[in-house]
Amino acid sequence: MSNDNPRLLNPNPNPERVLAIPVKKSNPVELYRPLRKLVETKYSESDAQKVESVLETLNKCRSDMVERGDLSLPELRDCLIHYFKCLCMVEPLFTAISSDSELINFVWYDAFYSEHNNGVSSQHNSIQLELAAVVFNLGAVCSQIGASYDRTTALGLHLAMDAFNAAARFFLKLWKDLTKDVSATLDLTLLFAESLHCLFSAQALELKSQQQLKDNSSSAFQKYRCAVSFKSASEHYQRAYDLIVGDSVATEHIHKFDQTWITHLRQKKEFFQVEARQRLSSVQPKSRPRKSFSSICALDHDAESVTEKLVRGICWRVDQWMPKLEGVYLDLVLSQDSPFKIMDGGKLVANPWDMPPPYPTNFSIPSSSSSSHILALPLKKSEPLDLYESLRNCFVLKYSESVAKRVEGLLEMLNKLRSEMLRDDLSLPLRRDCLIRYYKCLCMIEPLFPMTSSSNPPIFVWYNAFNPQEKSSQHNIHLEKASVLFNLGALGSHIALSCDLTTIQGQRIAIDALHDASYWFLILTHEAEKASATIDLSISCTQMLREIITAQVADLECNFPHPRYVSVSAGCPVSVLYRKAFEMWTFGPLAETRVQSLIPQHLVSIIRTCLIEFAPSDVTEQFLTGYWKAAQFLTGYCKGQAVLPVGCQPPCLDLLSKAGPVMIKDGHLVANLSGSDIRIGGDQLPGDHSNMAIDQN
Fold it and tell me: What is the pLDDT of residue 643?
C-alpha cells in the first residue's frame, strides 16, 4: 500500500516493512536412549516397546529442528508442530526422573542477542524450558513466513496476515501458559512474550486494514469495521512500544538486535492513532449485526484475486470443518491422515514429521458387533457428477484459460474426492477421511456459487436417507455441503456400532465417534438453513438426531471407567434423553417419516443390559493425555467452554504443508501428491504433484 493511496487519510510510515524475529538456537541432545530407559525402569520392557516409536520420532524431530539448515519455512513449521506434540506426550516422564537417571541437558540461546551475559540458558531435565523454546520458535517461524510473502498480491496479503495472526497466538500461549514456569533468557520472559504477541497482532491488523481498503466497500458497517481494525492496530502497536521502552534492559536488548525497531514501532503507533481517530469520527453504524465474522467473498472479475478468494473460503467459519477435541482419539485409531497412530495391542506409532500421508494403520473395524443400543443412521445417496469440466469451464468463461490452470489442481482433487465418497467398497475410516477432505475443498469453491452466469452449472442430486424414493435436485452448493455433513454424522454412528464395547479401546472409539457425529450434525443445523431439501436435512431432523446421539453418549459414558470429557448430558438420566429423542421423532414435522424408519421402535426397545470389563491403564494412557493436551493447545479450544477455534494453525497455512489434499504452489492451487504416496482408492491424480517451495518474493 503506497503512501499516495487516496483511501488512506495520512501517509503510512514504512508501508512495505514488517518485522520478523529469528528462531532460538539450541545444542543437540540425545532423547531416545534416556527416555526409553526411563519407561523400561518405571513400567516394563513391553511398555517401552509400545511407545518407542514416539521416542524415536521425538529424537528425529529435535535433531532436524536443531541441525538441519536446509528446511524451508513451511517444513520447519511442520517439524516444530510435530515435535511439540511428541514433547507433550512425553512430558509426564520428566516428573519421574530421579537423581540416578541419565541427565538430559537442554541448552537454548537468546534469539535476539545470544552474546549477552544471560544469553544462554542451560537446564537439566527441564521440559518446561523445552516447551517454551519450541513455542517461541513456532511464533518466530510464522513471523518469517508472514514477512516472506509478496503482500502486493491478494493471496500474499492473505497468507501474510494469517501467518502473523498465528505468530501472535503462539506468543499469547507463551505469555499466558509457559513463561511463568521458566527461568531462562530474556526473550522467554513475560515482558517479551507479551510484547511479541502485541507486535504480531498489530501487523496482522495492519494487513487486515489493507485488505479491507482493497475490498473497497462503501457500506457504513464495512467502513466502521475498517476503522476498528485501525484502532486495534493502534492499541497493539502502542502496547508493544510501551513494554519495550518502559524497561531499560529490554530497550538495550532490542537496540543490540536492531536499532530501528523502536523507531519503527513509534512511527506505526502514531500513524494508526491518527488514522483510527479520523476514521471513527467520520462513520458510525446505526446498529451492529449480531454476527461479526467475515462472510464468504463472492468471485468478482478481478482475476488476480481468484486464488486468494478460494483460499479465503477454507478460512471462513473454520469451525464448520474442524472436529471437536473429542474426535482426537478417533483420528489416532482410524484416520490415514493422522501421523500419530494407535495400533492393535495399544502400541503408539509416531510417523516421521516429513513423511507424507497416508499413514498405515492395522486397526480394523469388525463387520459385526455384540448387542448394543447404538443406532446406525443410514447414509444419503447421490447421483454421480463430473464437477471438473463444469467448474473449469466456469473459470475459463469468467476469466481466462490461464486462470483456470491456476486452480485446476483443486478441481481435479474435488472431482476425484466426490467420485470416491460414493463408492460402496470403501471402509468406514477411508470414507470418513474422504468426506472430510471433500468438505474442505467444497468450502474453497463456495465463492463460485451461485453460478448464475454459467450455461452449464452442476446439478447436485441427493436422496432422502430415510425415504430413498424422495430426492432433491439443485444447483445449490449448500445442498452438497449439507449432504456431506449428514453423511459424516451418519458415519460416526456406523463406526460406534462396529466397536467392541467389552474393551476400553472399543468404548473410547465409540464415544469419540458419537461425539464426532454430534458435532457434524451441529454444523449441519447451520448449513440446513441455506439448503431447501428433503426432510432429513431439515433443522428439526438434525436436532432430533443430535438428541439420539446425546442419549447414546450418556449411555456409554456412565459405564466408562476413566471419563475424559464432561458430557453436556451429565446428571440427566439416560432414559429421559432417549424419551426426548423419541418425542421429537413421533410428533411434529417428522411424524410422517415414521412409516419408512425403524428409529422410533429402536428408541422404545432400548434396555441397558451390557456388562463391560476393562483392562488396566498403562504408559500409553499418559502419552495419549499429553497428545490431547497438545491438540487442545494448537487448536485453541478451551476446556469446558464452547468457543470457536482460534488456535495457532490457520487452515490456509496448512495449504503450505505436504499433509493436505491441496497445496499452494507458485500462486496456483495444485493436487498435493508426492509421487504415488497420496492416493484415495488407489488411483493417482493427473496434474502438478511437485513439492512446494515458499515464495520468498
Answer: 39
Cell numbers linked to 581 = 429423542
Q: Check: CB of residue 121 under 8 Å from CB of residue 129.
A: yes
Residue in this structure with the C-alpha cell 478468494, named with its chain if needed = 309
**One-character DSSP codes across 555-572:** HHHTT-SS--S--TTTTS
For the stretch 464-493, what's the b/e string if a residue is b when 16 or more beta carbons lie within 10 angstroms of its beta carbon?
A: bbbbeebbbebebbbbbbbbbbbbbbbbbb
Integer Cα distance of 189 and 129 in angstroms: 11
- Of all helices (H) and strands (E), which one includes residue 434? helix 428-445
Residue whose cell numbers read 483456470 = 404
Q: Distance between CA atoms of 482 and 527, rounded to whole angstroms? A: 6
* Look-up of cell digits 454430534: 518
Asked if the bond preceding 357 is cis, omega within 30° of 0, the reply is no
| Each residue's pLDDT tens digit, 162-221 | 999 999 999 999 999 888 878 788 999 999 999 999 999 999 999 999 888 887 666 777
Question: pLDDT tens, 604-659?
Answer: 444 333 333 333 356 777 787 788 788 878 876 544 333 334 567 777 777 777 77
Distance of CA 678 to the CA centre of its chain: 20
Cell of 267: 512511527
Q: What is the pLDDT of residues 95-110, one digit of tens each?
A: 767 666 778 889 999 9
C-alpha cell at 472: 432433491
List, in sequence order, the alpha helices (H) in 68-153.
73-94, 127-148
At residue 122, what are phi and psi to the nearest 5 degrees? -130, 115
Determine how many CB atoms are found less than 10 A away from the CB of residue 565.
17
Mean of pLDDT over the chain: 78
How much of the chain exceeds pLDDT 90, in percent?
A: 32
Nearest to 320 by CA among 221, 222, 443, 451: 443
> Residue 484: which of 539, 524, 427, 449 has the closest Cα?
524
pLDDT one-digit tens code per residue, 657-686: 777 667 777 777 777 655 334 344 434 333
Q: Cell 538441519: give the residue.
A: 68
User: Is 426 buried (19+), middle (13-18) or exposed (0-12) by CB count in 10 A?
Assistant: middle
Written as one string, the DSSP assignment of 306-335 is HHHHHHHHHHTTGGGTS--GGGHHHHHHH-
Find the Cα–Cα–Cα–Cα dihedral 634, 639, 642, 644, rounded to 10°.
-10
Is residue 671 within 8 A of residue 412, CB to CB? The reply is: yes
DSSP 175: I
Asked whether 455 and 420 are in contact (CB, 8 A), the reply is no
CB 278 within 8 A of CB 136: no
CA distance 527 to 478: 6
Query: Between the CA of residue 357 and those of 116, 247, 653, what are the distances in Å?
Result: 43, 48, 17
> In the block, which residue shows the cell 456409554?
556
- Do residues 240 and 199 touch, judged by C-beta distance below 8 A? yes
Length of the chain: 697
Q: How confident is the model at residue 564 (pLDDT cuts 50, 70, 90)?
A: very low
d(Cα 493, Cα 602) in Å, to the nearest integer? 14
Quote the CA–CA distance of 587 and 2 in Å, as a whole number: 63
Query: Is the Cβ–Cβ distance between 564 and 579 less than 8 Å?
Result: no
The bridge status of strand 460-463 relative to strand 471-474 is antiparallel
